[in-house]
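Predict the 3D structure for this chain.
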Amino acid sequence: MNQEQLRPTLEAIWQDYLTLTPQARQIHDLLASCNPQVVTDHIALRTFDLPRVGIEQLARPFEEAGYGACGEYHFPVEQLFARHYEHPDPDLPKLFISAFHVDSLDDEARNIVHQLVSQIADTELQRDDFSCSGRHWKIDFGTYQQLLALSEHAAWVAAFGFRADHFTVLVNALQSHRGIDEINDFLLQRGFHLDTSGGLVKGAPDEYLEQSSTLPDPVEVGFSDRSALLPGGRYEFVRRYPRPDGRLYQGFVAVSADQVLDSGGFRPPGY
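Done. Predicted structure below.
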């Protein structure tokens, strides 16, 4: 992927993400109505740590367009490894790509994941927009539930495929709301449901990062034997604080990220 293709690809990821997170469009439009611009801090992508679809595979087209790896994060409880990428153009969002350790599964579940990934055509893996290409395999609801009992992350990828799990608004760039508490109050007053697991606000100023998130939208997913409502995507909000050198912290705090990586549960339908 070259520089000219980068912005259209990021826009395609956003448009695909909106199908999983309809409330993101509503919130984005609300914020856009009272701010000159709504800046995306980062985009979160999910995958498995298998060679064909690992972090390096998802990152490849973005690295071709100028992104570089800037930080690594380990989540031992969830069996996840993540890496974040930044572009020299500060107006472009960071990428946060997390991969589930497939070898942590039992033999049966591990074979399921390998079988799913084996269904991806080699030509699909070469797509610049593979990160929003969706699901490339057939899966029944029982298999999804089997994976869900072991890992929310693995089950989410098995159900939705390769798509953005969340986009994140940079609160620092808003003129209408200067802090996480202000943006949370703004959303709660308008009926949006926020994730309170681990606290409404994750992180702290002394960690140089505060985050909050909506609960995932319920999304109807078609399986080979039935359809089901599953937690889709979330819209996240982050405020960054300056480090001792005066520059805004651009990384991620593992504990805070850990609390928002879990998409368990979703907002009540019909609010």
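The CA atoms of residues 68 and 85 lie 5 Å apart.
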